[in-house]
Write a structure and sequence with these properties.
The complex is a heterodimer. By secondary structure, chain A is mostly helical. Helix content of chain A is 74%, strand content 2%. In chain A, a hairpin with a 2-residue loop joins strand 1 and strand 2. Chain B has 15 helices and two strands. Classes of the chains: A mainly alpha, B mainly alpha. Chain A: It is found in: Cell membrane.
């Protein structure tokens, strides 16, 4: 039992990483209706920018805020420059665009900051949290930030005019346009917010997985899985999905014999697919009713 | 609002409808392309022949994805897994059982058909991004499964297997590469004709009906479950045969040759070639084989970025891929004929 609780705790700690990423994925999915494969790379680039700022002597929280602002602007710029012209292109062409963006960002980051692994500071320290060896204060801080972020987003979408406009633009663009919402800018805003959330995720994850251009590869896969598991239409589901995936992954690694680090990912994914087969819209997703 | 308009307004169609006649080339154009493919190897070096063989093989794999996505509207990021199963079937049969390489192709096809058909069963309930994730899981799992210890005796584990390249039969005065090229060409043409006919048949129409509107298709009596899994099976079988040919051409199979990167490449090939346009597959294959090399030639350190920029250029200029170019060419030819 001791082992079980410990593994669950450790799972929650890694799950916080996935939850953060999944939240960013869901945000952009809400705004543009596609999964952005370049999300992880965008987060990685933001994290590098904050690291660079800190190298230049900017204190952590100032760098944090600056990076958020820069990422927000960059996200809007990417949408305006690269993806707005593709708005009328087929969905699969857009997906190809994401893959292209992925390649561009990954390769540029590699050229600017090279592929060596870098240490990244944490504002929370890394002492054991409340005497537990499994969760450090950083991981606890990460969980706290994720929950705060989720609450913030909930209030933003539920109780602000602009949040409502964004939801309207995403779910029924035609009708939203008829009531005077500028849907095109709502999409850009969605990109900006998703990039900023991605930046937060990146900066929280970097102390754990270390900073390098490929740091997001694995995280993004789990983030996607978490988002899909929780239901792509629900930010709350994404966070729950993130924690579940983290716990799944740890328990599978501990209890299923013969599962080393190599098989952890396939097994976690297989479990998620089994869940999806039973609940095709994810745990908390809204069922989209199709008409003929 | 008519029914057709409403579907468009709903906007959940992942793959646009391509009428079945627009999925193929005219007879004249096909013959010209065929002649070019037949004659070209005589004039070039062995390495280029090898590259042309790989072009045909990837073309075949992209074609398989095209049948699945362009034909039945199902999205797959798991094609590399089927490719791997095909390649390993051939390698194991050739190296452990001394089966003739030509005979391994149909076996690989059947094995992959079964695999794809079975995988299609749980995938039935999923669509769109959910299906993408499921197939993606398959693609990431495959290299790990091939490395499993108890399979190592057969698969060679991380090391992989070396495959012997076949000589030209009947004492034909041909290099191994050239023979393999013509062998591949025959297989590819046969499968291409099969695919074109498949999409024109009753089953093909059922695929397209499902792609365009699943509910309407089932109301018209199409067995949606059967045809969706069938599309997976056929696509997997063709991908598997491409994998077999790939194993013979490269003379080597290893788990890490068949990662998710391969599946993503095949997907890009399909988009660049034009989703749902079968002849575009070869154009798409050319893109995924040659453009990374060109990108590396332009800048070594930034090859990924150059590749991304080139890809962006292509999808800006022709968002519908090579199909769009073909349609523009056709219209231009029509206008010239009128003058």
């Amino acid at each position: 039992m001791e082992l079980f609780t410990n593994q669950v705790l450790a799972g929650i700690a890694t799950g916080a990483i996935y939850a953060c990423m999944a939240l960013a994925v869901v945000m952009i999915y809400q705004a543009i209706d596609h999964l952005n494969f370049a999300q992880g790379e965008m987060a990685m680039f933001s994290t590098f920018i904050s690291w660079q700022l800190m190298q230049w002597g900017v204190p952590y929280w100032a760098a944090f805020i600056l990076t958020l602002a820069l990422s927000f602007v960059a996200g809007i710029a990417i949408e305006r420059i690269l993806f707005k012209p593709l708005a009328k292109a087929p969905v699969l062409t857009n997906v190809a665009g994401f893959i292209a963006l992925f390649a561009i960002i990954n390769s540029s980051a590699g050229l600017i900051w090279d592929f060596t692994i870098k240490q990244y500071p944490t504002p929370f320290g890394s002492a054991p949290f409340l005497g537990s060896q499994l969760i450090s204060t950083h991981q606890a801080g990460m969980i706290g930030v994720t929950v705060l972020l989720l609450l913030g987003l909930y209030f933003f979408f539920q109780y602000t005019r602009i949040g409502l406009a964004m939801r309207a633009a995403a779910s029924v663009p035609e009708s939203a346009r008829l009531v005077g919402i500028n849907t095109s800018w709502m999409i850009a805003l969605g990109w900006g917010m998703a990039t900023a959330i991605g930046a937060i995720a990146g900066m929280l994850i970097a102390p754990v997985v270390f900073l390098e251009p490929n740091m997001m590869g694995g995280v993004l896969i789990y983030g996607f899985a978490a988002a899909v598991l929780g239901g792509l239409t629900s930010p709350f589901g994404a966070v729950v999905g993130g924690f579940l995936v983290g716990i799944f992954e740890n328990l599978a690694g501990t209890y299923i014999p013969g599962v080393g680090n190599e098989l952890k990912l396939p097994i976690a994914l297989a479990l998620i697919i089994s869940v999806l087969v039973v609940k095709p819209a994810g745990l908390f997703g809204r069922h989209i009713v199709k008409r003929v | 609002m008519s029914a057709a308009e409403e579907v468009v307004a709903e906007g959940h169609e992942a793959v646009e409808a391509v009428p079945k006649r627009a999925m193929t080339l005219g007879t004249g154009t096909s013959l010209v392309v065929l002649a070019a493919l037949l004659i070209a190897p005589v004039f070039v070096k062995n390495f280029i022949i090898f590259q042309m063989t790989m072009l045909l093989i990837y073309g075949l794999a992209v074609l398989a994805l095209n049948i699945l996505t362009g034909g039945s509207g199902q999205f797959s990021l798991g094609q590399s897994a089927f490719y791997a199963v095909g390649a390993y079937t051939t390698a194991v049969l050739m190296e452990h059982f001394n089966v003739n390489y030509a005979l391994t192709l149909p076996i690989a096809g059947v094995v992959c058909f079964g695999f794809g058909f079975l995988f299609g069963q749980p995938a039935l309930r999923l669509s769109g991004v959910y299906l993408a994730l499921a197939t993606f899981a398959l693609a990431t799992a495959m290299p790990q499964l091939l490395k499993l210890n108890f399979l190592e005796h057969w698969t060679g584990g991380v090391q992989g297997l070396v495959v012997t390249k076949p000589d030209a039969p009947f004492g034909l005065p041909m290099s191994q590469d050239m023979w393999l090229y013509y062998f591949t060409l025959v297989v590819v043409i046969a499968i291409y004709i099969f695919s074109v006919n498949l999409l024109r048949s009753r089953s093909g129409r059922a695929f397209m009906a499902i792609r365009d509107n699943e509910i309407a298709a089932s109301a018209m009596g199409v067995d949606v479950a059967l045809y969706k899994t069938l599309a997976f099976g056929v696509s997997a079988a063709i991908t598997g045969i491409a994998g077999s040919l790939g194993a013979i051409a490269v003379q080597f199979v290893a788990p890490d040759s068949y990662t998710i990167t391969l599946a993503i490449s095949l997907f890009l090939g399909m988009v660049v070639g034009g989703v749902g346009w079968l002849p575009g597959s070869i154009v798409g294959a050319a893109f995924i084989i040659f453009v990374p090399n060109i990108a590396e030639g332009i800048s070594k350190g930034l090859s990924g970025a150059v590749f991304g920029v080139l890809l962006f250029l292509v999808i800006y200029l022709v968002p519908h891929g090579a199909r769009q170019v073909a349609i523009m060419g056709q219209q231009l030819a029509g206008r010239l004929r009128k003058n």
